[in-house]
Specification:
- With 114 residues, this protein is mainly alpha-helical.
- The chain folds into two domains: 74 residues, 434 Repressor (Amino-terminal Domain) (Orthogonal Bundle), CATH 1.10.260; 38 residues, no CATH class.
- The protein is 62% helix and 0% strand.
- The chain contains six helices and no strands.
- Helix 1 crosses helix 3 and helix 2 packs across helix 3.
- The chain is elongated and about 50 Å long.
- The protein starts with 8 loop residues before the first helix and ends with a helix.
């Protein structure tokens, strides 16, 4: 897809998320572009600015290199509590995740009964 002149709103938010996760991992644009199989620092820069809209293959490659789920690239924790909760789970161990999942399932069951 050609470079946009004006950022696409959702693409800009996803790009900011990619940039946030990249910096969290201590990676430069160049290093992530090369190791994430993008091949172009300029393309990654455009993605981060929302001037290019990522496709599924690009999201998968970036997620793999950033060691996150592809879904984590689409989670915008600043937008609402649900997304914030999803983001926080990235830092939990599998055992902790299982416990949280059980707790959430219990809360959901209670909410459905009321």
């Amino acid at each position: 897809m050609p470079r946009r002149r004006k950022p696409h709103p959702l693409a800009r938010a996803v790009g900011a998320r990619i940039k946030e996760l990249r910096k969290e991992k201590g990676l430069t644009l160049e290093k992530l572009a090369y190791e994430g199989s993008l091949g172009s620092k300029g393309h990654l820069s455009d993605l981060e600015k929302g001037l290019a809209v990522p496709n599924i293959q690009t999201l998968a490659a970036l997620a793999e290199r950033l060691d996150v789920l592809a879904a984590d690239l689409l989670v915008l924790p600043q937008d609402d509590e649900r997304q914030r909760l999803i983001d926080l789970t990235r830092f939990l161990t599998p055992r902790q995740l299982a416990r949280v999942a059980r707790d959430v399932e219990e809360l959901v069951a209670r909410a459905k009964r009321s």
